[in-house]
Amino acid sequence: MRIFIYIGLALFVISGICVGGFTTGTQQRGNYYSESKEDRKIKNKVAKWSALGGVLSLAIAGLVYLL
């Protein structure tokens, strides 16, 4: 069960890093204008899938805990 919790948290951290969730507004604006449209698209795709994987992993951990 713990492994699913750790995997879920790690995937949420990866998602947060990809969308720039741990930066200030000034840093976020600088990052936005310094990367290409294709790079943003790839980063958003990675963030979306890692967030989905994090949710699924934490849901599995919750089900294992209940059973």
- Alpha carbon gap, first and last residue: 11 Å
| Element order: H for helix, E for strand | HHH
Which parts are unreliable, with pLDDT below 50 for 5 consecutive residues or more?
none
User: What is the number of helical segments per DSSP (H or I, 4+ residues)?
Assistant: 3
Anisotropy-based shape: elongated
Topology summary:
Layout lengths: L1 H18 L5 H10 L2 H30 L1
Helix pairs in contact: 1-3
Description:
The chain has 67 residues and is mainly α. It has one domain (2-66). The protein has 3 helices and no strands. The chain has helices at residues 2-19, 25-34, 37-66. Helix 1 runs antiparallel to helix 3. The longest helix is centred in the C-terminal third of the chain and has 30 residues, at 37-66. The termini are close together. 10% of the residues are buried. This is Protein-export membrane protein SecG. The chain crosses the membrane at residues 6-25, 46-66. Pfam families: DUF5316 (PF17247). Keywords: Membrane, Transmembrane, Transmembrane helix. InterPro entries: DUF5316.
